[in-house]
Amino acid sequence: MTADTDDAQAHADEVADLLRPHLPAALEAAGSTTDPEPLAAALAGFCAALREANRAINLTGITDAEGMAYRHVLDSLVALPHLGPPGGAPLVDVGSGCGVPGIPLALADPSREVRLVESRERKCAAIAGLVDTLGLAPRVEAVHARAEAWLAEHDADALVTRAVGSVRAQLELFGPLRRRFRRLVMLKGPAADEELEDAGRALTRFRFPEPERHEATLPGDAGTRVVLVFAGS
């Protein structure tokens, strides 16, 4: 094995070790029967593939094992309990960026079809490469498009968003397309409540009910994630 291969394996092993204590609770919260041990290995494999892809194109500023385990993987999985049972349409990761949260969610729930929608062509191509490396196609597909344009022609079971704009901006973007999706799940930071208050007019205009609000505390210094769940059509 080369030094680079040894380093990559050590990194993946560290990610898996960091994830193992937390995956059973994350899966239990979602009512999932997925086995946490192979899932830890699969998620660590994703982090290893992302870290390698990041050498060619800047997909993420987080490449250390703890950051990838907590801020990429576990941060993604806080959405899992709020997606509801899979429907007849795919889960859509809006503005997927580096494949997060869509790829971790796809690995945690193999019953879901997932679309990773990314408007930046080079990033979309890199995400497609990750999907191929992980053997997730055709269940998981990277789509080069703006999310609103894609939704104008396709249905989604749920939209999941992370770091793609304020609550108000998202409601204004997806409000006219409410009939196309069942729910909108926003992964937000500490400013979630302030953003939600600012979004009052958009809630009224597009007739969204008040969202469900959930909190999850991430390990280490990764902080608290607020999950807002809006009903769609």
Question: Describe it for me?
Answer:
The protein has 233 residues and is of the alpha/beta class. The chain has a single domain, classed as Vaccinia Virus protein VP39 (Rossmann fold), CATH 3.40.50. It is built from ten helices and seven strands. The protein has helices spanning 3-19, 23-29, 36-53, 65-77, 102-108, 121-134, 147-151, 167-174, 192-198, 200-205, and strands spanning 91-94, 114-118, 140-144, 156-162, 181-188, 212-217, 224-231. A seven-stranded mixed beta sheet has the order 3-2-1-4-5-7-6. α3 (36-53) crosses α6. The longest helix is centred in the N-terminal third of the chain and has 18 residues, at 36-53. The protein starts with a helix and ends with a strand. The relative contact order is 0.13.
Q: If helices are DSSP runs of H or I spanning 4 or more residues, what is the number of helices?
A: 10
Range of strand content: 15-25%
> How would you classify the helix and strand content by structural class?
alpha/beta
Q: What proportion of the residues is helical, as a percent range?
A: 40-55%
CATH topology-level name: Rossmann fold
Unreliable stretches covering 5 or more consecutive residues: none
Main CATH class: Alpha Beta
Q: Tell me the CATH superfamily.
A: Vaccinia Virus protein VP39
In short:
The chain is of the alpha/beta class. The protein has helices spanning 3-19, 23-29, 36-53, 65-77, 102-108, 121-134, 147-151, 167-174, 192-198, 200-205; strands spanning 91-94, 114-118, 140-144, 156-162, 181-188, 212-217, 224-231.
